[in-house]
Amino acid sequence: MSIAEVYDMTVTRQPLVPPAPPRAPDDMTALQRMRVMRNSPIETWGKRAYQDDIVQGRFLSHSSFIFNTPDAIRHVLVDNYENYSRTPAGLRVLRPMLGQGLLIAEGRAWKHQRRTLAPAFTPRAVMTLVPTMIAATDETIAKLKAASNGPVDLREAMQRMTLEIAGRTMFSFGMERHGATLRDFVMEYGDTLARPHMLDLILPLGWPTPQDFRRARFRKRWTAFVGQLMAERRAAGKSDNGPARDLFDLMQAARDPETGDAFTDAQLGDQVATMILAGHETTATALFWALYLLALDSATQEQLAAEVRSVAAAGTLDLESLKFTRAVIDETMRLYPPAFLIARAAGGPDTIAGLPVRKHDVILIAPWLLHRHEKLWRDPNAFVPARFMTGTPPDRFAYLPFGVGPRVCIGAHFALVEATLALAKIIGTFRIALADKEPVIPIGVVTTQPDRSPMFAITPR
User: Fold this and answer.
1) How many distinct structural domains can be found in the chain?
2) Where heme is bound, by residue (predicted)?
3) CATH number at residue 147
């Protein structure tokens, strides 16, 4: 049976097409793009970006390229990845929160960090953390049951739950005392400092902008808070020659396999910030979007609930048996990729897809565009989890929820396990519906976020 036949058999009704931002006019000027980008870069892309293999333009004095072909993406992110680094604007936005952590480190520093952290994120290591994930999810479900007689903010609930999982897996303690402060930091930064201003895009990285001064003040407060978390964890002591209790134990004990070097205290703080932020915010957002889609698509929600009942009848939630639940997560991250844009600046001249690339030219690889590209996907704007159950995975360079190549997200397996288990348990416990009919529009602010937090109605099954 062909993939198309399997697809047609599993899609027996008109699929849901969720709300999306309007596409920009293709004749939008550079100044207009900069203004729109302040709200969301997603709104700067027109029809050509969803149809053409390559969209070439200008960014200030340099050429810019949007690449939508797997071969070009392989070249930039795998074959010649060392020639492409984060853009100055990207570094301005991320460094205050992540410092020199794994997500934005370059060159030898990145290789050292990647080698040192890798053992903590193997599938075997992640499976030891599953009981912690399940316990935090069960506690969230208990709180939701108590609040199920009125409207519920599931986005906030998912943020609190994934933050609790991040705190326990990182430090072996809950985030009751620190969770509100950490969420305040995240919301403050996202609302005020993560959106690039025009000067952030124009000035060289070494020239501070007014926003950079505000970011520096924010970073001072943020690093002090992370240091407080680390001090509290250290006061609890180390494991007594037994297995590591948490990621902090693993990260403190980690040594570069080539040099034997451990992380410095400052490096460890940046890794903690990176893992907590990347580990909870992106998963919380993915779970929110999955719940939103299932609230719009009751038939798919019931199909997922039926799978959970069948799997749970065996006495435990076996990840390998939650195939449809995982397909819903995969399809959610296709429509709402955690990282909607990968922006790189060329470090030297190159040739991509026959086009000359000069030093400082800007390369854009946008999972948002790739995942909705008309040449790469059937029904690209529709919510169709069945596309991930055909037995044939999508092209590795057309589906990038966690990036690809040497810099693929180190926590991808952790996030997928957490999201799949949490979604199964929540939908296995509740029927969910939206409490209002206003559309929720995705915007790009570091991650693919909703433009508002809708209220949900939840009913115990």
Assistant:
1) 1
2) 409
3) 1.10.630.10
